[in-house]
Each structure stands twice: as structure tokens, then as C-alpha cells.
Amino acid sequence: MIIFAFVFGYLSLLVELIFFHVPSVANTQNFFKKNNNYEVDESEYITKIYKWAMWKKIMILAVPFFFINIYFLLPFLYFFPNLHESKWLVFETNNWLIIIGTFCVIAGRLITFGSMLYMRKENKQIQNSFKLHVSGIFNYSRNPGLDGMFLFFTGFGILFPSFLIWGGLILYFFYMQFRVKIEEEFLKKLFKEEYLDYITRTKRFLLF
Fold this sequence. Notes:
The chain is an all-alpha fold. It has 7 helices and no strands. Helix 4 (95-122) runs antiparallel to helix 5, helix 5 (144-159) runs antiparallel to helix 6 (163-191) and helix 6 crosses helix 7. The chain has one domain (2-201): Four Helix Bundle (Hemerythrin (Met), subunit A) (Up-down Bundle). The chain has helices at 2-19, 44-50, 54-73, 95-122, 144-159, 163-191, 193-201. The chain starts with a helix and ends in a 7-residue tail after the last helix. It holds the Pfam family PEMT.
């Protein structure tokens, strides 16, 4: 079951990133090389980040992004027992946790993949052709794709429990909170009252 969750999780993530990726104004690389598809000059918050010194961009944007990508690869160490004998990499679990972890991985990927497909069906978010999604799963959460990712990696944290993986999950959560704030500032300027009304009736995430 662990192998199934591992293969299903990473394979579906790879397919999503290659074929169904949805661009974001908060992508780290956009702040090192401006993407002209996004008109963000009206947002003081985003403009301020663009004007950060290069060292600040590297420390606040690039370094966390690098470590988060390393964190995504930690479960691969499960297949190399001689590399995870320390207390920081201890992959030991039980049958109940395996069931719970597998459920979280599958449910998380279905939520994220479904929300990405829904968004791409409406528009591909290129050339400033944006649409505010407020129906379907977006009626319950403003960021269902992230809800799914949080659930997905929580599942991996249960299947491959270690201090590093759970520490990485915490780092990922706070980093994505920062990125969500950037996207929200962009959407406020783009959709104005429509978006302000949306955030008053829909939570940022499914549970909070």
C-alpha cells in the first residue's frame, strides 16, 4: 500500500505539472524575471517585492523554494534503508497509519488535480485572460489546489514519518501562505469588489 501511494502520488503530480499546470503570479521566478502576462504594477505589495534587493529575493524567495523542492524528494529515501538510519530519517509506521496516510495521499491528489482541471476548463490564464472561480469546489475554499497539496504531503508525512519531512511540511505551509498573499493582492486589483465579496464568504483554505 505504501508503494501504491508513493507511485500514485508522484506520478499524478508529474502529469499535473507537465500537462495541466496552471500559471501563477506568485511563482518565484516571476520576481527575478518579470512575466509580462501579469499586470501587477497597480499592487503596492507586489511592486515592493519586485524592488527587493537581489540578496533579499534569494534569501526570502529562492532559498525556501530550493529547500521545499528537496523536501518533496525525501520520501524517495524510504527505498534506501541504509541512508535513513538516523533519528532524523526514521521511516517506521503501522497498518492503521498506512491506511490513513494512503487515504490522505489519494484524496489530496484528487482534490488538487480536480481543481486544476476545473480551472483549465474555464481558462488557461495567459495573456491577461483571467477568470475568478467562485463555484464548485471554489465555493468552499479559495485555494482548493493547496488544500489538496497540504493533505497529500500530510499523507506522506504519515507514511514516511521523520523529523525532516514534518519540518519540511511546516516550511511548505508557511511559504505557500506567503505566495497566497501575493496572489490575493493581485486578484484584489484585478477583480476589485467581486473578489472582495468572494473573500468575505469563502475561507482561504477548506478548514480555516
